[in-house]
Amino acid sequence: MAESTPIYQREGAYIPRIAAVHDLCGYGKCSLGVAIPVLSAAGCDVCPVPTGLFSSHTAFPGWYMHDTTDILDDYLKAWDGIGIQIDGVYSGFLGAPEQVRIIRELYAKFPKALRVVDPVMADHGKVYPTYTPELCEAMADLAADADILTPNLTEAAIILGQPIGDQWRGTDLSDAEAGEIVDALLAKGAKNVVLKGIQRQGENVIRNFVAGQDLDMVEVSNEYLPYMLHGTGDVYASCLMAAIMAGKTLEEAARFAGDFTHDAMIVSAKQPDFQARGVNFELLLGKVSALLAE
């Protein structure tokens, strides 16, 4: 089955509003520091819902986190009295299991809003240090309600209730095995899935697998760059949603997100201390704005 229509229909000069439910990180580009500029460049009104406040990303030593769960009910209740309308709910890193309930309340308040879930909780076989088993379980439940779900292999294992082992590191994952994982994620309830970051041993290609209710699985690949950067997952998911909100199909959005993230990594490598600072994309935001002119 071929993908026939965009997931989101952009209408004229209308500016869609996105509730961006992510943490805010002071140093090290990620989370809301990525989502706000990228989605804004795509002509979206980004309405932040901060799930936590970090002094820096967690790859730095001595980071500080403030969990915002206790303020979010009042924060969002205040929205009720001013007539806010939301066209998309884009969630990422969460600070506590209770925040899943808060996201579900946003879904209930805005039933027509596009639900994009980037289940930021683990990578390369390791769960992030602030994620408890209860929070991982809550995130897995949220993933089942996604219109678009964007896990890496480790996150897919958690969502599917599988032990994180070598098979989830992607070094020998075949197309057929990737298809089985994507199908299992769709069977749990997600309407569309982008399985990210498969890099097979001995290859210089990084592969993403895209499938959904109206799209048979396709592979979208980019050159593999031999260094890791914090925040590339946030850049990818934000660019994917930016392209969707610009009226692109899921496959087109995945190709744009992969190309943009690849190019941002190249730009980043020219900066001092780039592997500690995280991904830089600022010089490329014109490419996001250009989506609206295509």
Key words describing this protein structure:
294 residues; 10 helices; 11 strands; single chain; 3-stranded antiparallel beta sheet; alpha/beta
Quick recap of the structure?
The chain has 294 residues and is of the alpha/beta class. It contains 10 helices and 11 strands.
Task: Describe the structure in your own words.
The protein is α/β, with parallel strands linked by helices. The protein has 10 helices and 11 strands. Helix 1 packs parallel to helix 7 and helix 7 runs antiparallel to helix 8 (250-268). It is globular, with a radius of gyration of 18 Å. The chain starts with 16 loop residues before the first strand and ends in a 5-residue tail after the last helix.
Q: Indicate the structural class.
A: alpha/beta
Distance between the termini: 25 Å
> What's the helix-strand series?
EHEEHEHEEEHEHHEEEHHHH
Q: Give the number of helices.
A: 10
Question: Can you tell me the residue ranges where pLDDT is under 50 for at least 5 consecutive residues?
Answer: none
Largest sheet descriptor: 6 strands, mixed
Radius of gyration, in Å, reads: 18 Å
Give the % helix: 25-40%
Strand content: 15-25%
> Whole-number average pLDDT?
93
Oligomer: single chain
Shape: globular
Going across the major beta sheet, what is the strand order? 3-2-1-4-5-8
Strand count: 11
